[in-house]
Amino acid sequence: MDDIRAAQAAALSQVEQADSLEAIAALDSTLLGKQGEIAAFKRQLGSLETVDEKKAAGQAVNEALQAVAAALETRQRELGDAALQAKVAAERLDLTEYVTAPTRGHAHLVTQAWERLEDVFIGLGFQVAEGPEVETDWHNFEALNMGEGHPARGEFDTLFVDYAPEGGSEGRTVLRTHTSPVQIRTMLEQEPPIYIVAPGRVFRRDTPDATHMPVFHQIEGLVIDRNITLADLAGTIEAFTHAFFGPGFSSRLRPSYFPFTEPSAEFDVQRPDGSWLELGGCGMVHPNVLRAGGLDPTEWSGFAFGFGIDRMAVMRHQVADLRDMYADDIRFATQF
């Protein structure tokens, strides 16, 4: 019995001195295995003279094994907790260098641009419209004059989803690639005249880089009224440019192509230093789009325009890399 107690004490001492999970794993096999010192006493039980001696010795061996097993489990839990705490401490970001006292946060850079754009367009007489981010293929493409097989669809790296919203069907539902579907929904739900802007989040299968993100933000405008002309579009773009960027900026239109407008144009903004920056696309609403919206193109006309909110924020604040706005680096965020 003394030998069993001594073996138990020695085993518990080894467990207490173990300083790693690997050491605990090795001791588990050594101390509790069939070849372990304590288990070896079971093979000696047959040499005892009486049944009572065998019973007492067997019970002592079992109790010793249970005590060692419990000690191993406790030590393993302690070392596991210590390892986790060490990992957390090593990966923790110390922000005390940058934030010395609790401060009130502020809107994200993109949110600031979003809200400023809404304010500018509301000041120009527009209303804000919204639509779902999960769209039907019809709203996202077909109603915008991009039928099945239309080559313009190849410009959109579309994400299809296995979900059918009201009016949709399985396999024909997408994460919207632009906010243009809001134009269709507005025409179907609201009688002209229509003066709206539609800001929102859009999705494409883009690889993140300095100028692209798979999830980004757009704002589109739509005007539907009687006797709307390209001159109204050009004047609206110029008024927006002055209101958003300031009196030192101006705009121009360059001929282009979009399936949902005709004629179509790119619009550029001229900086005070004379350089030009492409901002977005625009044009007169295509008759097919008006028909899809339930409007008679012989009675109603209109124009549409759109551009990236993220790009506006990048240009306004001279951000070098679009990804910086989504990296959650407080050193970057506190600059704006």
Any key phrases for this structure?
single chain, 336 residues, seven-stranded mixed β-sheet, 40% helix, elongated
Task: Explain how this protein is built.
It is built from eleven helices and ten strands. The strands form two sheets. The chain has a seven-stranded mixed sheet with strand order 1-5-6-10-9-8-7, with helices on both faces. The longest helix is centred in the first third of the chain and has 41 residues, at 51-91. It has helices at residues 2-17, 21-32, 37-40, 51-91, 109-123, 137-140, 181-189, 230-245, 287-292, 309-317, 330-333; strands spanning 127-128, 134-136, 159-161, 173-175, 194-203, 215-225, 250-258, 261-270, 276-285, 301-308. The termini are far apart. By secondary structure, it is of the alpha+beta class. It is elongated, with a radius of gyration of 35 Å. A hairpin with a 5-residue loop joins strand 8 (261-270) and strand 9 (276-285).
Can you lay out the helices and strands and say which pair or pack?
Elements (H helix, E strand, L loop, with lengths): L1 H16 L3 H12 L4 H4 L10 H41 L17 H15 L3 E2 L5 E3 H4 L18 E3 L11 E3 L5 H9 L4 E10 L11 E11 L4 H16 L4 E9 L2 E10 L5 E10 L1 H6 L8 E8 H9 L12 H4 L3
Parallel strand pairs: 1-5
Antiparallel strand pairs: 2-4, 3-4, 5-6, 6-10, 7-8, 8-9, 9-10
Helix pairs in contact: 1-4, 2-4, 5-10
Sequence stretches where pLDDT stays below 50 over 5 or more residues: none
Proportion of helical residues: 40-55%
C-alpha Rg, in Å?
A: 35 Å
* Order of strands, widest sheet: 1-5-6-10-9-8-7
One letter per element, helices H and strands E, the order comes to: HHHHHEEHEEHEEHEEEHEHH
Tell me the major beta sheet.
7 strands, mixed
* Structural shape: elongated
The number of distinct helices, counting runs of at least 4 residues, comes to 11
Q: For the residues shown, what is the average pLDDT? A: 84
Please give the alpha-carbon distance between the first and last residues.
76 Å
Residue share in β-strands:
15-25%
**Helix/strand structural class:** alpha+beta
**Beta-strand segment tally:** 10
